């Protein structure tokens, strides 16, 4: 029977929920997830018809049995098992599975607490047709399930102690990963590498806080030692210094983690007909940009994503740069294309300036490069067509010295110099991360979200102030609250300390079905 839902859904409810976990499009298979503990999570083998309460009074498996062709088999199925059957139309006032068949399915059964959410759960593997998926979702709604909120499955996993908050956030990072390296970093956080590091630092600070509070509870004269003056008024300075060092490392790793997750913008630019589009196509290994001998073929920018040493690089092919003076009304498209190119150059992290090797450096090339070297962006100058025209020797006096360091011979036709180009780009990306590979901790992973980074920095600031006050022999009743503030900040990262509104913001960014 249909169980109407009253009231707006909210995170933290125990309502039975369902959501499509795969894209709503034609495919071989689709997966629909369900979960819910209900007020009575027992499954004692009763038939579906014996459960006549509201949907929230029964767990997900009991509710699903209402619209399953083999209810007793489903109700008695152990955790981590699969049951074959049909999803059927629910019949009002009728027990058993006599409804009209909708789709043949496999139901994966997960019993509390050994499930993703920690609740009784079931995943329905059905055919991927749009009508089949929609019909099953409609049947689930009639049975008493409601549509899950974004990230509500992972929210329940967090609330039921299956995941800490860093692992919960890494689930969405894993979904959004654009390269293998980004995936690897998200997997590390999912495995608990970041959570362990945060918990270890927090334990050190808790030990420091306990020692500090003992000093406050008793007369300081009882603990006075000959080393107190040199050590300041902090009971164990080594704990604070170790925590400070490890927090600094985590904070510094943020730049690298953002680079792996979000990538960087690189713009291919240069004069018309320098070979930008040919080089763009070669780097992509596909013909995305139109290439002709006529200058100005590219009127608008084209973007594609490539991976450089595991870093996603947004590569943009732009319209050729030349003066817009003298262009007539028919050339309006080219003028607008060049204006957009200049806008993209201002946004770019890296600029790859392409020079036509046959033509050599022109006055326009040198003027642009001279202006650009004053900006904060990194750039490389690519001497294209190096297979037929070699670049000038470094000793040539006419070539500005700064160009000798960034000039790379390449050929979009033969691939000459492309490996050296990718190596140079990788070096620029590594420098942009702010954390050179040579000093990167083995197997380390940094914060995966801005929320985590800000809380790490908050704890870092507190401990820096603790050490400064200790150096100035300030009273412990001033120092102790700062240590506790750092402990609380680290607790917020893992979710030991949390605010309901903050959790809703975090999980509302997830996919529905995650």
Short description:
The protein is an alpha/beta fold and 514 residues long. 43% of the residues lie in helices and 15% in strands.
CATH superfamily of the largest domain: Probable tRNA modification gtpase trme, domain 1
The CATH topology of the largest domain turns out to be Gyrase A, domain 2
Side-by-side strand order of the widest sheet: 3-4-5-2-1-6
CATH architecture of the largest domain: 2-Layer Sandwich
Number of helices, counting only DSSP H or I runs of 4 residues or more: 17
CATH C-level category of the largest domain = Alpha Beta
Inertia-based shape: flat
N-to-C span: 28 Å
Low-confidence stretches: 1-6, 40-54, 225-232, 288-299
Q: Output the structural class.
A: alpha/beta
What's the rounded overall pLDDT mean?
A: 81
Helix fraction bin: 40-55%
Gyration radius over CA = 31 Å
The amount of beta strand, in percent, is: 5-15%
> How many structural domains in the coordinates?
3
